[in-house]
Design goal:
It is built from 8 helices and 7 strands; from the N terminus they run E-H-E-H-E-H-E-H-E-H-E-H-H-H-E. It has 255 residues and is α/β, with parallel strands linked by helices. A 7-stranded parallel sheet has the order 3-2-1-4-5-6-7, with helices on both faces. The N and C termini lie far apart (35 Å). The chain binds NADP nicotinamide-adenine-dinucleotide phosphate.
Length: 255
């Protein structure tokens, strides 16, 4: 295998949550371009179908299956349908996340807490457990959790979101430690500010963006492609010695 071939995902089945847009869509696109059979998933089937049609125009095939990762039954069905259609999952990307509340930590409602934890932390754990038997059988698999720089260095007003992302980093390390000897790798990506709908409130406010960029040594916001390339590395054999890694892509924000 040449070095470049080690980035190929030919013959692999990948499941990417939260992939109708933003970072997840870019990861699905680069995985499909690298040869994987990719299931794209989010809550809205029509948006998934539209994205699949756009990718088809570029010659890329992806398989849309709707699921709300905050619902354990949806997760079960998502994995069952993926396995039935394409075979066992080789690569799981836990990318879907929720942040329903921005404000003082002490005002976080029980409802917001439950939603953040179920979507950002419990769903990645549930989905990992659902794909694990297939990975153990093959003695091979790559789990990539999408956390955030907020999980390393929390900002004000993103309180429980940051807590969920810190816990996701810890969960990734536990997965990596317990499953490494069985051939299953787990790594976590911590993006900085990336231009997507999720972060629009931050980057569409010019004074706020200028102020935030003072803390980013590269002085700019990131793109979804700048996360997708890292995800491809972690999904592929190119990263075969990486497990339990915490990979920032943040323009230097966490230095
Ligand atoms: N953008 C940033 O600056 C930034 C920075 C650090 C970390 N991140 C992390 O990067 C990941 C992706 O964020 P993004 O910026 O790409 O967001 P985005 O553009 O808003 O996309 C989010 C995706 O997740 C889906 N989704 C949301 N809730 C879901 C649920 N309960 N079940 C299933 N799918 C769900 C959305 O589709 P539907 O709404 O149709 O379900 C959409 O496909 C998240 O984990 C986020 O925490 C982002």
């Amino acid at each position: 295998m040449t070095y470049l071939q080690s980035f190929s995902l030919e013959g692999k089945v990948a499941l990417v949550t939260g992939s109708s847009k933003g970072i997840g869509a870019a990861i699905a696109q680069i995985f499909a371009a690298a040869g994987a059979k990719v299931v794209i998933s989010s809550r809205k089937q029509d948006q998934l179908d539209a994205l699949a049609a756009t990718f088809a125009e570029e010659g890329l095939t992806v398989y849309p299956i709707a699921a709300n990762v905050g619902n354990p039954e949806d997760n079960q069905q998502l994995v069952e349908k993926t396995v039935a259609q394409l075979g066992p999952v080789d690569i799981l990307v836990n990318n879907a996340a929720s942040n329903p509340y921005f404000g003082p930590l002490e005002n976080t409602s029980d409802g917001a807490y439950e939603k953040i934890m179920s979507v950002n932390l419990k769903a990645p754990f549930d989905l990992a457990k659902l794909v694990l038997p297939g990975m153990l059988e093959k003695k091979s698999g790559s789990i990539i959790n999408i956390s955030s720089v907020e999980g390393i260095s929390p900002d004000s007003f993103l309180g429980m979101y940051g807590v969920s992302k810190a816990a996701l980093i810890a969960l990734t390390k536990s997965m990596a430690r317990e499953w490494a000897s069985k051939g299953v790798r787990a790594n976590v990506i911590c993006p900085g500010l990336i231009k997507t709908k999720f972060s629009q409130a931050l980057w569409s406010n010019d004074p706020l963006l200028t102020q935030m960029m003072h803390h980013v040594p590269m002085g700019r916001i990131g793109t979804v492609e700048e996360i997708a390339g890292l995800a491809l590395f972690l999904a592929s054999e190119a990263s075969s010695y990486c497990t339990g890694g915490v990979f920032t892509a943040d323009g230097g924000y966490t230095i």
